[in-house]
Amino acid sequence: MSGKPLDAGAPPRKRSSLCKFSLWVCLLFFGLFVAVVFFAIGRSFYKFATFSHSQVYQNQTLAEVKNRAAVVRPLIDEHQGFEIAVSVWSLPVPEEDGEGIADVAETPLYSDIVFRGLRLGDKHKQAVVKYKLPVAVFRRLLLKEHHLRASFVVIPESPSLVDYMSNFSIWRPETIQRPPVRSWPFPLGAADEVPQKVADRALDSFAISISLLEFHEIRSKCANDSNSNISLEDHAGKQVEGKNHDAEEGEEPEELENTESEVADNSFNGTPGVSDIAKHPEHAVKRHPFVVTRTQIRIVEETHIFNRKAYNKEHNKLKSTSVGPSHLLHEY
After folding, report:
1. 72 pLDDT band (50/70/90 cuts)?
2. Where are the beta strands (DSSP E) in 174-223?
3. Between residues 175 and 292, which one has the greater pLDDT?
4. What is the tens place of the pLDDT at every residue in 204-251?
5. Residue among 322, 1, 54, 9 nearest 171 (CA)
6. Annotated domain spans of the chain
């Protein structure tokens, strides 16, 4: 009989603690909860940043909607063809004194359909608009950027939903006088004087306008500018003198408050984008108008269908908070 002790084998494994197991389960569920919350926030932010009106979307396709009266459909979708009407507007030729015509009295220089047979998927379509611009308009003492402007109206081709339109509502107060966007009768020079239909007024309410004038400041190269409070040479001389004085006192030279660019900017008075020769005679030689001859048109492809109740709620809310005519001089 051997004297070796008996081998007791591997020590028994400790049983898993119920508390530790419960802790891991809680951590797992907490991690899943945090992941779901972050996913929901990220998805909401993505929808908000990508789709501006997602709160009124109908969560169905048009084929799934049984009651078409319960949804709001786009006038133009991927299958609907459309045209774009372009109009160019200017102030009438001024009188001999250069004034006497209100800003709202605009004259159409061009108004006709420029693009035909378009689809939302079309890209890089080009067109040239030719019109005659009276040079006498630039003799006005007061000239603003919107005194020469272009307006654009998107017109769905027939047949379309516009053919069945009987009424429409806009968020702007009716007291606001918007500048015209199409000559009437349309196109310009048409002999037919048929009054505008409801559909025509509705399409015009969606139109946009852009200014075709820009003012670029032309700075004088002369040393002494009569419209400046101080010439650039004098300003530079005072700056050097100030530095020498500070050096003699043993102090660090301080920069003058007005730099060369700031002194030059002081010579350009008045509101930007406006040439007012009556108040600022220097505008006649320094603030020259330039005509915009090239622009781009982009249409956002928003073809989702909306829930009618949610849409009307947001529409009425916007109408109730819209501004009045005292807060809006020109709406473009």
Report:
1. very high
2. 208-211, 213-217
3. 292
4. 999 999 999 888 776 666 644 444 443 434 443 444 344 444 444 444
5. 322
6. 41-74+304-332, 75-217+289-301
The Cα–Cα gap between 239 and 233 comes to: 10
Q: What residues have CB less than 8 Å from 51, skipping those under 6 apart?
A: 57, 304
Straight-line distance from the first to the last Cα atom of the chain, in angstroms, rounded to the nearest whole number? 111
Q: Which residue has the tokens 């007291």?
A: 175
Beta bridge partners of 276: 142
**How far is Cα 80 from Cα 72, in angstroms, rounded to an integer?**
16
For tokens 């966007």, the residue is 181
Residues 276-311: tens digit of each pLDDT = 777 777 777 677 788 889 999 998 888 889 999 999
**Residue 94, amino acid:** P
Enter the tokens of residue 173: 């107060």
Task: Name the band, by pLDDT with cuts 50, 70 and 90, for residue 9.
Answer: low
Q: What's the token pair of residue 124?
A: 């890089």
Instruction: State yes or no: cis peptide before 289, omega within 30 of 0.
Output: no
Owner of token pair 């459309």 = 82
Question: Which residue intervals of the chain are DSSP H helices?
Answer: 18-50, 198-205, 232-249, 260-265, 283-286, 308-320
Question: Which pTM was predicted?
Answer: 0.67
